[in-house]
Design a protein that fits this description.
With 269 residues, the chain is an all-alpha fold. 72% of the residues lie in helices and 0% in strands. The protein has 13 helices and no strands. α4 runs antiparallel to α10.
Length: 269
């Protein structure tokens, strides 16, 4: 039985590692080398594609646009979602259930259903072709899932802590800032990583609201390497590696918080 498990694990690992290695090797190849040998080693490990993608393309601007949109979207989503989650969990009885249901109802609506009315709203506000418009849209569409995650954790915080703080004269703001937020840090970190991946990889909304090059984000910019009749795979895969690097680095540094956020509240007592 253990042998079968090992075989399955090795097979799954190879399914992940082989395409990743192929993508990395492709970034060191020319277009001719890619079509002559897709899985073969490059003739020489030259970094021409990495230099070209920043010299011939405004990749630095695209990268900075993604950083700005992702950073502000994650920070403000966590701020608003934590405030709402705290308020919802502090409401007792059916009122809290109703408000929680209203906020999380947004998770049930597919993004494609909102595309036309959302575009009309952003257009009427004059926020198309702007990073502010993308940030506001990102905050609104990911708020329900952030509230859902944070509410689940804040419900596990012992009510006795809040009651003791209330007896000592603590206000709701003080209890939120000094009790709820410090105890929710693992959950906040896990939610931050989840939101970071969603916003950083988002293609739908930049494709919907952005048409000018100066406001493009990385996922939208990578479409420039894919044509109707031909695709520049070396440059495309180079862009994919560059776009993936921040997510890998963020996960390596925040891995312990991510694991702690997943397991937080799973064991009581």
């Amino acid at each position: 039985m253990k042998t079968i498990k090992y075989i399955l694990v090795i097979a799954f690992a190879l399914m992940v590692i082989i395409p990743l290695i192929a993508v990395i090797f492709t970034t060191f190849k020319s277009t001719a080398e890619v079509f002559s040998s897709i899985l073969g080693l490059p003739e020489s490990f030259r970094v021409d594609n990495y230099i070209s993608i920043f010299v011939d393309q405004p990749m630095a601007r695209y990268f900075m646009n993604s950083v700005i949109v992702t950073l502000f979207s994650v920070v403000f989503t966590l701020l608003f979602a934590s405030l709402i989650a705290y308020a919802v969990t502090r409401m007792f009885g059916w009122i809290g259930v109703v408000f929680f249901s209203l906020f999380t109802f947004g998770m049930m609506v597919p993004a494609q259903v909102n595309m036309i009315p959302l575009y009309q709203l952003v257009f009427d506000l004059g926020l198309t072709n702007s990073l502010l418009g993308l940030i506001l849209v990102n905050i609104s569409v990911t708020m329900p899932v952030a509230i859902f995650i944070l509410s689940g954790f804040m419900k596990s915080i012992p009510k006795s802590l809040f009651e003791a703080a209330r007896i000592d004269g603590g206000s709701e703001w003080q209890m939120y800032r000094k009790i709820a937020i410090p105890l929710s840090m693992p959950s906040l970190a896990a939610t931050a990583i989840f939101l970071f991946v969603m916003h950083w990889n988002d293609l739908l909304y930049p494709l919907l609201f952005i048409t000018k090059n100066e406001y493009k984000t990385l996922p939208l910019a990578l479409l420039e390497f894919q044509g109707e009749f031909a695709t520049n795979y070396p440059m495309l895969f180079t862009g994919v590696i560059i776009a993936s690097a921040p997510m890998v680095i963020a996960y390596l540094f925040l891995q312990r918080y991510f694991v702690a956020g997943i397991t937080a509240g799973s064991v009581k007592g």
